[in-house]
Amino acid sequence: MTAVDHEMLVAQLDRLKLTAIRDQLDTLLDEAARSEMTLREALAFLVTREIARRDERRISMAGKIAQFPFVRELDGFDFDAQPSLDQRQFRELATCRWIAHGDTVLFLGPPGTGKTHLAVALGREAIRQNHSVQFVTAATLVAMLAKAHDNGSLEKQLTTLSRPKLLIIDELGYLSFEANAAHLFFQLVSRRYERGSILITSNRSVGEWGSVFGDPVVATAILDRLLHHSTVITIRGDSYRLREKRRSGLLQKAGTTLETNETAKQ
């Protein structure tokens, strides 16, 4: 059998764009030989490595397009610290069936309880399953819609925001909406209704959204669409950030300092 020229093989792999196999060729072949793989097993082994590299690159690129603020995974979430949450429910959400159906998920709870962590983690799971994702804070979203409305490009902006299979809107409720902004938000929700999924995190209960949107009627119309096919998860518990400060004694020290200062003033 004619000996295979290494450089020619590398060039052929490059031509076929099998870059993972190309970059690790000697290592992969040595591992296959040590394991005494059959030709069929070796081929499956090489193809698996190539697919893994491509998936890794795809997920990385899609994550950048999604504009996640950080990388978070469900495995990294401390469910023991939030006993109000059911891990089985999140394993079900991680299947992304709700995204395929165009449903809504709401994470409600006080600041620091892990809402954004969970939202990003589910967004990354969606990307792994080939769903397009866009992450945006509520404040940024409202600013985008208002700017588009003012310069006459609202329809284009709504179309752009309707394309991702999953739209994650973070931190709804921290800032109240102006009346016009609430109507713009309603248009976006209506455009995506039963077509694309929305995941919203909020520090306010849905009963308070009337004050958030500045218009109870518009808030009711928005909730009517969001809650029609939805999963609402309320997170109860302490802030992770405050919990760590308590463990380190910082909050207690701060409280002692304040008490000392107040005593000195008296």
TrEMBL record:
The keyword Lipid metabolism does not apply. SUPFAM superfamilies: P-loop containing nucleoside triphosphate hydrolases. Residues 101-234 form the AAA+ ATPase domain. Keywords: ATP-binding, Nucleotide-binding. One of its GO terms (biological process) is DNA replication. It holds the Pfam family IstB_IS21. One of its GO terms (molecular function) is ATP binding. The keyword ATP-binding applies. Belongs to the IS21/IS1162 putative ATP-binding protein family. PANTHER family: ATP-BINDING PROTEIN RV3427C IN INSERTION SEQUENCE-RELATED (PTHR30050:SF4), CHROMOSOMAL REPLICATION INITIATOR PROTEIN DNAA (PTHR30050). This is Putative Insertion sequence IS21 ATP-binding protein. It comes from Mesorhizobium delmotii. The lineage of its organism: Bacteria, Pseudomonadati, Pseudomonadota, Alphaproteobacteria, Hyphomicrobiales.
